[in-house]
Amino acid sequence: MSTVSTRAPARAPRTTQSRPEAGRRRRRREQQWPAYVFLSPWMIGAVVLTLAPMAVSLYLSFTDYNLFDPPHWIGLRNYTEMLTDDPRYWRSVGTTMLYVVIAVPLKLGVALGAAMLLKNLGRGRAFYRSAFYAPSLLGASMSIALVWKALFNDGGSVSGLLGAVGIHAGGWVGNPHLAVYVVVLLTVWQFGAPMVIFLAGLQQISPDLYEAASLDGAGRWRQFVSVTVPMLSPVVFFNLVLETIQSFQVFTPAFVITGGKGGPADSTNFYTLYLYERGFTASHMGYASAMAWLLLIAIALVTLILFRTSRSWVFYAGEDGR
């Protein structure tokens, strides 16, 4: 009589990670730690100087905090008061929007014009490029703002020159209708940074495109519209985003020129200047924190709109369907 074996069949050996693969992963981890060491100052700075203050500011925006007493939680009261019961807040929003709408296009237009002149300039290009770029390094300083204030003040050089040609406008700094344009002109004067970026973009446009357009009978204006603008549109978009974000945060020129008051008649009371006044002059730091977060949201929304609308006018070489 035959017997049936009841022994279970032998299992296949469990597959494990091969030693060479484990060794490679271990060596890869060992090679990565120097990168984390060199990145650690940046990561510590990002957490301590950026992320942590942002978290504290967000918390303070829901509190009543006067810099001396402990913050008291009040919920959305700062936001509701700001949006419904503070006319100076809305005047600061209007002043800032007027400044952005005027200063950004003017600055980019002057920068593009200067870049095109430098591109076609033979000798002395390096000198003029450095000379045009210098105001971008100096314009944000307190000393330049003081000089600008003296130029446009009553009895200053600008009022004297205008008076000599029959335009008696007086000092711009003390005129509610002209004071904001003092800051605009100071911003436009600092066109050097976008000019350098425009110049780099212009130098990347192939001369063959202009030659082909010229053979088709296109003049200089037509070449600018049909060749320069489309090929330079990514650079224009880049400068537009940067300058728009910076313009929403204008502070130093307005603070110096108006003595930190935003006058006359709140005509230069920009958003950041009013934020500073509520936070450090009036000691309403909770209110100022709420203003800062609304400014962050506004800049994010404007930047998002610029990115969304850029699909219809920004041309990238190699893309089809445009």
What does this structure look like?
- It is built from 13 helices and 2 strands.
- The chain has one domain (87-312): MetI-like fold.
- The radius of gyration is 30 Å and the shape is flat.
- The chain has helices spanning 19-60, 77-84, 87-119, 125-138, 142-152, 157-164, 179-189, 192-203, 207-215, 220-248, 252-257, 271-281, 285-309; strands at 63-64, 72-73.
- The chain crosses the membrane at residues 33-60, 97-118, 130-151, 178-202, 223-242, 285-307.
The average pLDDT value, as a whole number, equals 84
Determine the CATH superfamily: MetI-like
Q: Give the fraction of residues assigned to helices.
A: 55-70%
Our estimate of the beta-strand percent is under 5%
Annotated CATH topology = MetI-like fold
Poorly predicted regions are 1-5
Number of helices: 13
Spatial separation of the terminal alpha carbons = 87 Å
Assign the CATH architecture. Orthogonal Bundle
Could you say which structural class the secondary elements and strand pairing correspond to?
A: mainly alpha
Number of strands: 2
Which CATH class applies here? Mainly Alpha
Radius of gyration: 30 Å
For the sheet with most strands, the description reads: 2 strands, antiparallel
Number of domains: 1
